Structure prediction request, 245 residues.
Amino acid sequence: MNRCGIFDSGIGGLSVAKEILKSRLFDEIIYFGDTARVPYGNKNESTIIRYSLEALEFLKNFDIDFLVVACNSASSVAIEDLRREASFPVVGVIEAGVKALDGEKKDSNILLVGTRRTIASNKYQTLLHEKGFKNIISIPTPLFVPLVEEGITEGKIVDEVFNLYFGNINKDKIDIIILGCTHYPFLEKSFKKHFKNAKLIHSGQAIVSMLKNDFSITEKENSSIKLFASDNPEELRKKAEIWLG
Ligand code: DGL
Prediction:
């Protein structure tokens, strides 16, 4: 049996799990949401590294062969530590997200949104500059995380938060938006409403392409998912029923 561990601070990683599950890349997915300690994105680096290593220890109990870090905040600061402690491949959403821009015009106007930690880490920006992309606006948008955790993904409150964060930029000029937080794909409709011309880069789809192309992982006959949470697992299950369908 081929098993993949996936973790996030909460329900955001379900957007990644959904894509991996849909592509049937593993016989079984073990998902861990650290719902007792969400959000990660406002915490300091050493705390996020500690939480990530604890998530890895938990997932090791299930004999996983692969780890997907479905949290940009953890991918921005903890990936090297996780790789040191794991005897199997560990992939993060940031490398995958940047790779998803291969083939895009280097003068594209890119908007990068993510948690405070992800934006402050400069991980995305450095990798994008290395690839020759120059026009990058990066904005921390932490309020989107509790909104998604609450299931509020459209409407007046969300529009207000969009105006708060993006009121000063020319939205029509943005060509590509990197959804640098795995909670944000749940806000896809709202992003499309506010940024009519932008292509959205989604961590889940980016990871699936990376797993297929770089790790030659192929489709299995069946794929299932087991969900675990550090607090309120019932709530995670209910959200997963909605988000995973
Ligand atoms: N979903 C996470 C990310 O991709 C973290 C959100 C949070 O816990 O702040 O960054």
Q: What stands out?
A: Strands lie at 3-8, 28-33, 66-69, 90-92, 110-114, 136-140, 176-180, 199-202, 224-229.
